[in-house]
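During the first year of the project, the team set up a workflow for recording each protein of interest as an amino acid sequence followed immediately by a discrete structure-token representation. This format lets reviewers and collaborators read both layers of information side by side without switching files. As required by the reporting guidelines, we include two representative entries from the current panel. The first entry is reproduced here exactly as it appears in our internal archive.
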Amino acid sequence: MNVPDKQRQAIAEQEKPEKTRSTQEGTSDEAVAQALYAKREQIYPREVHGLFATWRAIMVALTLGIYYILPWINWGSGRQAFLIDLPGRKFNLFYWTFWPQDLFYLTALLVISALSLFLFTAVAGRLWCGYTCPQTVWTEVFLWIERKIEGDRPRQMKLASQPWGVEKILKKGSKHLVWILFSAWTGFTFVGYFTPIRELSYSFVSFSLGPWETFWIAFYGFATYGNAGWLREQVCIYMCPYARFQSAMFDRDTLVISYDPKRGEPRGSRRRSDSYKAMGLGDCIDCTLCVQVCPTGIDIRNGLQYQCIACGACIDACDAVMDKMNYPKGLIRYTTENELEGAPRHVLRPRVVVYTLLLAGIAVALVTAVLLRTPLELHIIRDRNVLYRPTDEGLVENVYILKIINMDNEPHIYTVRAEGIEGLRLKTELDEVALVAGEVREFPVHVEVDPCKLTQQSTPIIFEVQAVDESGLSDREAARFLGPEGC
């Protein structure tokens, strides 16, 4: 073999791993492409009973009960207890009525909601997803309807595989009809949070719904029907951002649903009477029930996955199997990474303490602010046409526009006064201002001052509005009085 041949052979040996690596990378890319663009496989979750299934049913009944009943509750003088009145620019929340000026309360509430989600996730994982997320709650209802009409999992799969006929058309059509009616009711209730629901009901039965009400009932109903009836786990896997950033809030002491491989492996089927330890098997009998009951179709035995919504269905299914096999429960359970490895679990961690302190501080501040909130607001606007003008009596006059907002749920009569300069006189067309609940009134007032009492060209004064029938209901607003300095 001459030198060039040896060189070619050496080059070939060096290139061989590169070709193998390229082939592997190509195979990996193809697998990723197939996973991303593969046709969706329909999931038929098996019905399961147990502790966590009971808790899910309770949470579904509780959350949907609140959602569908709350708009029908009245408070006080016949007003809807919970109403986001966009045309009226106010928000009724039981005893309180909030206005655009109270927007910071909503901001604080949103911050509290976000911190609560962070705290609960850091401590207990995705409990929100498994028990109270609207996608989960409405999907559970749609699955229940599907089982009542089409039957359990084997019957649903059999119905889906058989050709179209009278039976399939009736069952599928009945299911979708019930889904659509339930979705329409959901959309109607949603609009009832923005339009008084009793007025909305009258408009609905009299076929006089406005275009916006009709649009939002149809839109929200269609969204419910599409998400809970068709998309289901696709919303959790591909559309929900929470599943993507939840890992940033997890640590080794976060409570998650886990399979115990030390106890369960190696898997294998066996009879209950078999001595599986002598056979070299673990507690997992490889029945795949944990996969069949999963609403997102994952195998929890492959480890924690972002598709897991922590609903606990796999725990109920596995515990039932363990009971039948006379094995200890808990092969699949809520636990932490540290506990799986035999280390103690730490509940109080820095992030938990920080979230708790922030949440408690903002919540206390919000509650205090709401309780001390005065349902009255006063705004002062100067007449900018003339800075000041002399009167026939030799006084200096400033004109202001007073804007009073009665943010209470009851009518009140108010008086207006001003102070800040000795001998100040207030003239107004209205000695008393009567405002019904939620009314806004604007009117001019004239302030006259002896120029000899002015020590500067701009002097601060205070306007005060006081309710006649309630001593604690008042508001004060500062303004400036302009005039010549001295006599």
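The second entry, processed by the same pipeline in the following quarter, appears below.
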Amino acid sequence: MTTFAVLSHRDVAAELGHLGTWLEARNTRVSRLFREDSLQIPDADALIVLGSPTSVAEGHCQTAARQEIELVASWVADDRPFLGVCFGAQALACAAGGSVRRMDHTFRAYTEVETEHPNLEGRWAVWHEDAISAPGEAIASLPHADAAFRVGRAWGVQPHVEFTSDIVERLARAFGVDDSAWRGLWESLRDDEDGHECRTHRLLDEIFPD
């Protein structure tokens, strides 16, 4: 049985959503790790790093975020399967020689990315304040940032593949975001929950083929 280590915060941005349904369908063993406890990764076959309100952007990266970049760098140096989602993708970008910059606004949308990769086509839930410049050539992009890239067996994906409409609403409430800033994302995702889950599962099947 494949063991996945999943690193997140304990309370905020911790829900697995569509990622969780994929892990259940694959009959995997999941080890949940929380940034508030430790950055020690146990023995696992694959590592998934989820989003965070902290930042690895130039001029905004604090000590804990630098430690996480080092952890990701060590993991991918051994060419082990890895998926970074949003903050996790940004940490991977920094670890692999790319860069991350702070934008002047938070981007929230249910939108298509520009790509020729079949498993990245369609609409995705995007919520981020920091923009990736990928190491090497990106495989998907948004008008303001790279959206997906690969480094060996490691993938960085800016869209929140795990998001459901319920997760969006809970995050918005937790961060005190004005309704007008997140309601459009929530409504669009609510109307296409099955489609978003299907695209997420198809992409995960490619990222973790075994």
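For the second entry, the following points were noted during internal review. The CA atoms of residues 109 and 185 lie 5 Å apart. The helical segments are 17-25, 63-77, 87-95, 165-175, 179-190, 193-207. Both points are flagged for discussion at the upcoming steering committee meeting.
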